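[Q] Does anyone have a clean structure-token version of this?
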Amino acid sequence: MRNSRFLVVDDDPVSLQKLKIILSELGECETATSGNEAVGYFVRNFNANTPFDLVALDIGLPDVKGTDVLVRLRQFEQSFAGKGKRAKIIMITSHSDRESVQKSLKNGCNGYLVKPFNEDRIYNKLAELGWVAGLEVMDDQDDHTDISSEPAPKTKPEASTPAAQTARPAETSLKNTIIGKIKEIKGGQFTLPGQPDLYLKLKTLVDEGADLATVSDLLKNHSALTGSLIRISNTSRYRGVVPNKSLSEAIGRLGLRETMEQVCAISTKEMCTNMPAKYQTYSTNVWRNSLACAFTCENIASVLHPKINVDPFTLGLMHDVGKMAMLRIFEHIETKKIYTGEVSWPAMTPIINQYEGLLGSMLLQQWSLPDEYQKVARYHGGALPDNRRSEELLMANLAIDVVSELDRLVDTDNATEAILALVSKHAENYPSLSGDTLIEIVSNVSSALAESVKAIG
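[A] Here you go.
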């Protein structure tokens, strides 16, 4: 199976070299500095049966406009390749080229990168198009369309797609070992330790209209979870006149949807527990931050009323599921001695940062959670491709920012600067967000988080 092949077309030597270095990690990369040179390379390689899989094409070339080069390449493909696979083409542009970008999208480009760009933005764009350092990801001929149109991760990629191509012979490394395990998860050959199977079963029952007795029957044999649900139902948030002492009483007070949310919280905690001490502090922080994000999303939904289509608590809780899963994979390959080299935090951190979003969205798709959850897991902290608007992602990003400052914001007497900064940052998307509203959200989240962490144990 041949390597992926890339062509970078840019007369700016800095951009040209930056893209060449990164693309060379994923396959074979050639460069051109003019439009006519690029068309010549493209045609010659096609005729030699070594076609390019991706072309990064600058709009402002010295001889021929990049938009015109795009048209020529697509016309050539139409004439000689027919309905066969086309190259992915991304346009390299500046902020002032909006009209040219729209024209390029109509003429068949698959996306664009705005100068100046950094490595993270390049990697994110490549991930959208199907190349992530050897990891097979979803592939779609219309990659600038909604992510929900992408095929399920369990779908086997066709032999001609970028997802099916290997970047280069893999050396034995920590990164390649992790990629191999992610591929096994995708293919169903490896199941994550601590995967929230009970929550997924419960979700299926509730979605199918199960009653309290059926839900209680599913959960009753899980003593630790039962104890946590009873304690949660007796917190000040739900407490009635008489304390609950049984599972059915707890579910009756919480309600089925709230019970499902709390089982989700408990299940995600199990993904982060029973791990070696090396991972415990980090994994506990990931879960605590996810739980805080869940309560924050819930409060944002209650106070600011964004038009979202999913449960805000679960959305916040699941946004970092990819990070939880990455820790489980590292722990697995180390304890089972699948990788015999050193598994250090300096080595793990960039791998987690690169793959946790993709892994999270892949898992949520496998678990049949809605597209909105998948988008937030993949793009949290950033934006959707081509800056498409997502109310769920906007809410998650606000929640993430609040949680990152939570300890500081709780001390309202000394948090004025942080409060004003957050309100200003999110004012465009949440014009009704005020300092007082943010303080209310923080207060609610802080108390709910403390009670929940204590109840879950």
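[Q] Thanks! Anything notable?
[A] The chain is about 55% helix and 5% strand.
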